[in-house]
Amino acid sequence: TDVTEKLEEVVMIWIKQIKQILVESEQMRREADDIGPSAELEHWKTRMSSFNSLLDEIKSSRVRKIISILQAARSKTLKQWKELDGNITIAANEAKDNVRYLYTLDKFFGPLAKASPVMMEHVPSLMNTVCMIYCTSPYYNTSERMTSLLLKITNQMVNTCKMYLREG
Fold it and tell me: What residues does the Dynein heavy chain tail domain cover (predicted)?
């Protein structure tokens, strides 16, 4: 029982740390007013990397051994652990899915950032792709996520137009 108690203490520390990571990942991001859509892709790539690293750690042999010992001891901490494990998996899948969908927009970010009215010919295709993301993505189809993305696209277009006018 001493070993079980020590392992439960370790798992409770992990649970506290993981809960903190999950809470921080859901907090509102502070971003510059003129940030472009590439920042959205970078945010989700970073988040995907973080959660994948966390998943790798949770699936490590060291952690699995501790969890199996606690399962044999019928520890009460495992209920919280399993719930958090599921939440991390969901967050990792969300980030991976969002990166996959946002990469479909990546081909538009270059032309959108070039200081030329030529970018306007890409807008219909860009909007069709955004619509496709909204209709098919299981995670990115919320009004908050779409508003944030469209705001960043608009910011990029405004910045591009300003640069064009300054150069012209």
Answer: 5-166
Instruction: Tell me the two tokens of residue 61.
Output: 């042999």
Question: Each residue of 26-78: pLDDT tens digit?
Answer: 877 777 777 888 889 999 999 999 999 999 999 999 999 999 999 899 988 89
What is the distance in angstroms between the CA of the first residue and the CA of the last residue of the chain? Answer: 77
CA atoms within 13 A on the CB side of 26: 10
- Spatial contact of 104 and 133, defined as CB atoms under 8 Å apart: yes
- Residue 110: Cβ-neighbour burial (10 angstroms; 0-12, 13-18, 19+): exposed
Identify the residue whose tokens are 């892709």.
41
28: amino acid identity, one letter: M
